[in-house]
Specification:
Length: 441
């Protein structure tokens, strides 16, 4: 499945791709696509059938059946669900990643999402001990340690504070981690789907810290969850005073159980693991909690055997979401290339597109809202005449940080790490429109 492309032969590769795919008939292509997608498990339903329908009785000039009858009335579904024809748009997991689904991860279907907001039912999930069912009346947040006035808050107490609503992405630093050693996932959902973006509502943590009064020695905060894993992370006080939010709602409704109901932290732009869910306790200390397993676990192993630690920021990243392996190009002519870019340091300033594997670049347009530490959608309108492409996107954020090539990232970090793989991603588009995950080294 994986194919490594040497940097020197970009033109040769494009020619080779053209030759390879030319002899494939449409039927072969469909079979091939199906197999490629099946190979990643449970993905068959993700193949869109296009507009081909067996039953033409609902098509013009006929009156469709739904125009000849009454539909269902109000509150038939008191909580609405997507159309049954969208049932392929779901979270998916890679079963071989972990032994148990209660300590695993699922990915958002980025290939089917529009705009920048991830609907609540499609936000990626990461748990270490499954999803607890917490009664909010029986849930408390304790803030203690190096503070003047330790307090135990009820949910009602917390919701009395003036609230903020902020659109921020959340990303697991393991996103793309399966691709450090080579291209192996033939689906955007699996190469980049540990990523979602919501409008989060809650109280800035600094407001709560004001209530308890942090002592001058207080420099670090241990955040702990109420789930079976009691997952905890050490967070520097500066972050808490900057933009950490104690969140109770997402996209207009109370948090989903999977996302930490009834209370979680959101540390905008930082490793998802610092955004502790089912938040029960914040302890102020003078140093990080080195004895906690989680503090030592989230490190990046370097080639020399040393490890980077406290690599909190999710660095500038981007990916083309259309076309992608799940959505090949089906027609020649007009084509809008779309994708998403994000930076844990602030706003996206610019995204460039390459059609030749990074040899030349053209600026894309940023679409809609361009917000700090949020997904930003980009677009490039072009024409496709069946020529093979090595499609890439490269994001630059407002700090001037440029998304690195895979080569640059490997030179800097080696190949032992799981985390923080934010390098430029390559889709190879063949002459038949099929899109494959490849790496240029
Ligand atoms: N209490 C608790 N908080 C947690 C976790 C957990 O297992 N337990 N997983 C963390 C990890 S590793 C990530 S990436 C994010 C994922 O958030 P999401 O499931 O809302 O996408 O939650 C973090 N917060
Ligand atoms: Mo994570």
């Amino acid at each position: 499945m994986s194919r490594i492309i040497k940097g020197s032969g970009t033109r040769e590769l494009l020619a080779q791709l053209a030759a390879e795919s030319e002899h494939l008939s449409t039927r072969d292509r469909r079979d091939f696509l199906k197999k490629g997608i099946m190979a990643v498990g449970g993905m068959a339903s993700a193949v869109t059938a296009g507009n081909a329908v067996a039953n033409t009785s609902n098509l013009p000039p006929m009156e469709p059946q739904w125009g000849k009858m009454l539909g269902h009335g109000v509150v038939e579904y008191p909580y609405g669900q997507p159309s049954k024809f969208e049932s392929h748009v779901v979270r998916r997991t890679v079963p071989w990643l972990t032994a148990e689904s209660i300590s695993s991860i699922s990915m958002s279907p980025l290939q089917d999402l529009k705009g920048i907001i991830t609907p609540n039912g499609l936000v990626f999930e990461r748990y270490h001990a499954g999803v607890p069912q917490i009664n909010p009346d029986e849930h408390r947040l304790m803030i203690h340690g190096l503070v003047e006035r330790p307090i135990i808050f009820t949910m009602e107490d917390l919701m009395r504070f003036p609230s903020v609503s902020e659109i921020k992405f959340i990303e697991c630093p393991a996103n793309g981690g399966m691709e450090w050693k080579g291209a192996q996932m033939e689906a955007l959902q699996f190469t980049h789907g540990m990523l979602s973006c919501c409008e989060w509502t809650g109280v800035p943590l600094r407001v709560l810290l004001d209530e308890v009064g942090v002592k001058p020695e207080g420099k670090w905060i241990l955040a702990e969850g109420a789930d079976g894993s009691h997952m905890s992370r050490s967070i520097p006080l500066e972050k808490a005073l900057d933009d950490t939010i104690v969140v109770y709602a997402q996209n207009g409704e109370m948090l989903r159980p999977e996302q930490g109901y009834p209370l979680r932290l959101i540390n905008p732009g930082w490793e998802g693991n610092t955004s502790i869910k089912w938040l029960r306790r914040l302890e102020i200390g003078d140093k990080p909690w080195y004895h906690r397993e989680e503090t030592s676990k989230y490190t990046d192993l370097m080639p020399d055997g040393k490890a980077r630690k406290f690599s909190f920021v999710q660095e500038t990243n981007s990916v083309i979401t259309s076309p992608c392996p799940e959505h090949p190009i089906v027609r020649k002519g007009f084509l809008e290339i779309e994708g998403i870019a994000w930076s844990g340091r602030g706003r996206i300033k610019q995204v460039d597109i390459s059609f030749d594997g990074g040899v030349t670049w053209k600026p894309a347009n940023l679409k809609g809202l361009v917000l700090s530490k949020a997904l930003t959608r980009f677009s490039f309108v072009t024409k496709w005449d069946g020529q093979p492409w090595l499609l890439q996107s490269r994001a630059i954020d407002e700090t001037g940080y440029v998304q690195p090539t895979l080569k640059q990232l490997r030179e800097a970090r080696g190949g032992n790490s799981i985390y923080h793989k934010n390098s430029i991603h390559t889709w190879s588009v063949a002459a038949n429109g099929e899109v494959k995950n490849v790496q240029i080294t």
